[in-house]
Amino acid sequence: MKKHGKAKNRKVAQVSELKAGLSGYLAQVKRGEEIIVTERGRTIAKIIPVPPPENDEEARMREAERQGRIIVRGSGRLPDSFFAWERPKVPEGAIERWIAWERYEDES
Fold first, then answer.
1. Does residue 56 sit in helix, strand or coil?
2. 48 HSE (CA, 13 A, CB side)
3. Cβ atoms 69, 62 nearer than 8 A
4. Rounded to the nearest 10 degrees, how much is the dihedral formed by the CA atoms of 13, 19, 22, 26?
5. CB 48 within 8 Å of CB 42
6. Confidence bin at 71 (pLDDT 50/70/90)
7. Distance, CA of 72 to CA of 76 (rounded, Å)
8. Separation CA 61–CA 28 (nearest Å)
9. Which has the minimum average pLDDT: 16-20, 44-48, 70-74?
10. 101-to-15, 18, 91 alpha-carbon distances in Å
């Protein structure tokens, strides 16, 4: 097996080498390396690692960020559309009742 050019994690294997040592080559791919497969000196294939499956929660968070509904930590600013959003409707006197309830709970 030969190293290939400048790329660190890329190796070249002839078809015959790949057949003889498939499990070893697959172990290298699992570690993140790429295998270039050649036949009679011509490149015929590339074996690459499969990316890990995306976490559904991460995908939802990215979509919410894209839509401007959330801000990723560290961005430091609210989206321009934030102040145009409809504010929640709070029934008359609800806040005062909650404050009174909270104060009563603290005294108990």
1. helix
2. 5
3. no
4. 50
5. no
6. confident
7. 9
8. 33
9. 70-74
10. 76, 73, 16
User: Considering the entire predicted model, what is its pTM?
Assistant: 0.45
Mean pLDDT of 56-64: 82
pLDDT category of residue 69 using cuts at 50, 70 and 90: confident
DSSP output for 25-50: HHHHHHTT-EEEEEETTEEEEEE-PP
SS (H, E, C) the chain: CEECCCCCCEEEEEHHHHHHCHHHHHHHHHCCCEEEEEECCEEEEEECCCCCCCCHHHHHHHHHHHCCCCCCCCCCCCCHHHHHCCCCCCCCCHHHHHHHHHHHHHHC
Q: What is the mean predicted confidence (pLDDT) over 40-52? A: 91
- The one-letter code for the residue type at 29 is V
Beta strands 34-39 and 10-14, pairing class: parallel
